[in-house]
Specification:
- The protein is of the alpha+beta class.
- It contains three helices and four strands; from the N terminus they run αββββαα.
- Strands 1-2-3-4 form a four-stranded antiparallel β-sheet.
- Helix 1 crosses helix 3 and helix 2 runs antiparallel to helix 3.
- The longest helix has about 140 residues.
- The mean pLDDT is about 85.
Length: about 230
Amino acid sequence: MADSLPNINFGFDDLRDRMSQFTEKFDKFIAKGRKRVLEERNQFRINVAEFQEDQRAKTKEIELLAHKSSDHAQAIDKEAAETVEMHAAIASITQQRDARAKHRDCIKSEIVAVRKQIAQRISAQQQHAKELDEQARLNGPELDFWQTYLCMRIEGTGVADRLKFVFTHVDEKDWEREAWFELDTEKRDYRVSYAKPKLETEEVERCVERLNESRDLGPFLKGMRQLLTAAGK
C-alpha cells in the first residue's frame, strides 16, 4: 500500500536554495545599507566639523572686522577732532593776521600823518629861517645903530634859538649896572623867557606882540629898555 502512494515533491531543496539566495542578498543589502549609513554619518560628521570650523573662521573674521571697524571709527573721530583743531588754529591765525594788518594800516596812517607833520614843520622852519635871514639883512645896519644908541650888546645863552640882550646905563647912579632879558626865537612868534629886573607880564606881552606883528626889532628893543629902566628905579 505504501508503494501505491503517490510520490509528492514539495521542492524543499529549491526553496532552501532560494531562501539561501534571498538571505545572502538580504545580508548584502543590509551590509550595504549599514555601510552607506556609516559613510553618510561620517560625511555628516565631516560636514558638521567643516561647518563648525568655517563658523569659527567666520566668527574670527567678524571679530577682526569689528576691531578694524572700531579702529577706523576711532581714526575718523581723531581726524574729526584734528580737523576741528586745525580749523580753530586757522581761525586764530586768520584773526591774528587781520589784527596785524589792521595794526599795520594804523601804523601806516600814523607814519603818513607824522611825515605830513614833519613836512609842515620843515616848511614852517624853512619859512621862519627865510624870514629870519631877510630880517637879519634888514636889521644888520639898524641893529648896529641900536646897539650903540641903546648901550646894548647881544650874548648867547647856551640854548639854541635864544638870545640875551644886555643893557647898561639904565641906572643914573651906576652906569655899569646891567639889565637884561632873554628872547626865545624858536617859533615864529617870539617870546621873552626871562628878564632881570623882573617886569610886568602884560607890558612885556604888549611889546612882544608888536614885534611879532611888525617884525621890527628896533622899536621892540627900545620899548624893552624903557621897561627895564623903569623897573630898576
